[in-house]
Amino acid sequence: MSSATPTPLVGIIMGSDSDWPLLQKGAETLRDFGVPFEVRVMSAHRTPEIASEYAATAEQRGLQVLISAAGGAAHLGGVLAAHTILPVIGVPVAGGAVNGLDSLLATIQMPAGIPVATVTLGSAGPINAALVAVQILALANPELRQKLHAYKEKLRRKVAEGDAKVQAEVAKLG
Ligand code: RP5
């Protein structure tokens, strides 16, 4: 799979282009796993028709997972989820008057029947959203499963290296 293929499997949707610096890490994560994706800016409040139409046609266009990122009164994930049966992963975006608490609360309070799978608030959010998307796709894709195992191994190695580094520092204390 390549992120340059014309049929994206994951849609990253954000409420404003001001969300892009945060979301870029999610796009990079999908790219690193070789998952084709698209990135779009549309708003539950400023362009509600476009957001609804996008979600309503996402399945027929071959998308399999949607990642929704919005700050403030974050209704985007809910609007997308209302119009599709595809899984929607919500990224609460920090910022605004209460620094993301509003976005977090909006995203985690979906009513029964319209789930939005909410991930971490902050810079880890887009990365974790991308990883959940990869995990969903990996259920039917052994190649992606292998890549996820390799990813975990990389994390394990990084922690082991960190531990060795700290042990060396502690040893210097005498
Ligand atoms: C939300 O409001 C966006 O997702 C963004 O996080 C926040 C601020 O948007 P801008 O005013 O920067 O366009 O809709």
Structure, explained:
The protein is an alpha/beta fold and 174 residues long. The chain has two domains: 131 residues, Rossmann fold; 33 residues. Helices cover 49% and strands 14% of the residues. The chain contains six helices and five strands. The chain has a five-stranded parallel sheet, with helices on both faces. Strand 3, helix 3 and strand 4 form a beta-alpha-beta unit. Helix 1 packs parallel to helix 5, helix 2 packs across helix 3 and helix 5 packs across helix 6. The protein is globular and about 65 Å long. It starts with 9 loop residues before the first strand and ends with a helix.
- Alpha-carbon distance between the two ends: 52 Å
Counted by DSSP, the helix tally is 6
Low-confidence stretches: none
Radius of gyration: 18 Å
Main sheet record:
5 strands, parallel
- Write the H/E string, N to C: EHEHEHEHEHH
CATH topology of the largest domain: Rossmann fold
Tell me the domain tally.
2
Strands of the biggest beta sheet: in what spatial order?
A: 2-1-3-4-5
Helical percentage? 40-55%
Q: What proportion of the residues form beta strands (DSSP E)? A: 5-15%
Q: If classified by CATH, what would the architecture of the largest domain be?
A: 3-Layer(aba) Sandwich
CATH class of the largest domain equals Alpha Beta
Mean pLDDT: 95
Bound molecules: 5-O-phosphono-beta-D-ribofuranose
Shape: globular
Secondary structure tally: strands = 5
Structural class: alpha/beta
